[in-house]
Amino acid sequence: MSTSISSTSTTPRWKAWVSAQNIVVAVVLVLAIIFPLVVDRPRFWLPNIGVRTLWMGTIAMSLVFLNKYVGLLSLAQMTFAGICSYGIGYFSVTMGWPIIPSIVLSLGIGSFAGWLTALIAVRTKAIYFMMITLALAQVFYSWASQAIEVTNARRGIAPIPRPDFGFINLNDITTFYYFALVLAVIAYVIFRYTATSQFGLAIQGIKDSPERMSALGYNVNRYRTAALTLAAFVASIGGVILVFDRNQVDPSFVSLDSTLNILVVAVVGGIGSLGGVFIGGLVFALLQNFAQDFTDRYMTLTGLVFIGVLLFFPAGLVGLGPMIRRLFSKRAKASASSESSETLDAERRAGTHNKKGQHK
Amino acid sequence: MPTQDIAISLTDVDKRFGGLRAVKNVSMEVRAGERVSMIGTNGAGKSTLFNLIAGVFPVTAGSVSMFGSVVTKQNTAKRARNGLARTFQTSRLFEQLTAEENVFIALGGRGLGVRSILPARRIPAKWHRVAELLETVGLVSEGTRRVADLSHGEQRQLELAMALAADPKILMLDEPAAGFSPAERQQLVAMLTALPADITLLLIEHDMDIALQVADRVIVMHDGSKILEGTPDEIRASQVVREIYLGGGHA
Ligand SMILES: Nc1ncnc2c1ncn2[C@@H]1O[C@H](COP(=O)(O)OP(=O)(O)O)[C@@H](O)[C@H]1O
Ligand SMILES: [Mg+2]
Known about the structure:
Chain A is an all-alpha fold and 360 residues long. Chain A has 16 helices and no strands.
């Protein structure tokens, strides 16, 4: 058992990675906080880029959470968000209820939709789970396009005014941006915390080996169900931002296009990274707003960016950090060794460095 | 004998995979606290029998009981919660997590309660137990390494620690010594003989020395059937076993 040497070297690296990740998170958060102060035209940047990034990121984050920690690819996350948006429109506008109970109840309904989906889909895995969530999303879309009494069919529910809670008034765009930012941060914290809980460890175990988890006495399907419900709750938080961003809700919220946009945001940001989705969201929002300026085929451009990211950054744009770091550490190593030994470069060119690699 | 004293009882158990009859009409009983080894060539149906006892898949015919109650229709998780722990012939670990996190998960295999949202790191009593278990299997210095980085032998040891974590009444080990060095085999035998007397042990083992050393009783499987049953001495002396193992098919 010749192991003690390598065990001491892995621990600090893991710790360093975690703190590096947290530094990035802190920097991004600071940038997000000062964003309204530094942009030239807040009336354009805050709603079109800022708020949009936040709701797309939040919804995509729920997709990434399920993929990264539970191993399920759900294409119903946009639908859960849309259900919450519809709920807010229906209760507060159609029924004329006060806004806070409407929001709370709609968050509950969005989460409940996740739970129902889990009942149907949780026994299936991989591609089947994806297909079922996609099918359910389409079922809801066609229902929303027709249910005139509830959803007002294709015309949707409008206007849905931004609320004035008294102490905060969301009609002020800067206030609304910060409101969205707080919700997105809450969503992020929920997932980060969950991952470190006992529940979080268990679902990661289920992702790696459901058979083993059953053999240990875990009820695998109940854990999957709970995780999907939680992810639907977070997607619903995204739906709250979304509905007040648009001031309305209509079937386009839950269309196939919107569903795929969320998938693109998740993949561009990095399907293995919770925070990366906000980078994905930002890129997507920028494309949506500026691509029209120089091409009227912005969807094509989005597609090209998507393919480009898949080809060159399989870990998403957050994969860029580690890639750069690796590049630098390679350079650093190379220069350090060339200082110590002039002949190394010649050896390297001659191909003898392969031998060196074998020693480790 | 009261049926509660029978840890595992199989009655006329059959298992088909499509056209293949992997287990043929097997009946057997294992008393509580007994140590039973199962031997037989590759493909004899030993692992399949384990999976039937653990409830990984349903029997085609026959019935399975644990401590006197019929569990034929119970799922794996339920049987595990009733005291059955097992290892897998090919390690099924949580590759992305560390060794200690693997054992930690193995400790917590009960319901999905409110406590499960507590932060995992804040439960010192559990981590203490994790360290004990890693010590038992000789992995205590590897706790913080990711499973994917462990050697094959270490992964097998981790499998053991996880099976022991639940304080099982019945422990089923599927070829635990596969890939072990002679030293590790010695350790394994020592560990198995040191198990608390009330644990029922069902062991599949290719290494005859280990299988016979640890067992009170040995069951020989061949081609899906139980062909022989006896004490280690009887098995050592058996002409049939010699033929099976020397005569071919020993992979
Ligand atoms: N899940 C399965 N599906 C189909 N056939 C299986 C399955 N598991 C085992 N078998 C077959 O059943 C027979 C017995 O296998 P197994 O129980 O693994 O034998 P042993 O553990 O004694 O080597 C083999 O022919 C094997 O191919
Ligand atoms: Mg086997």
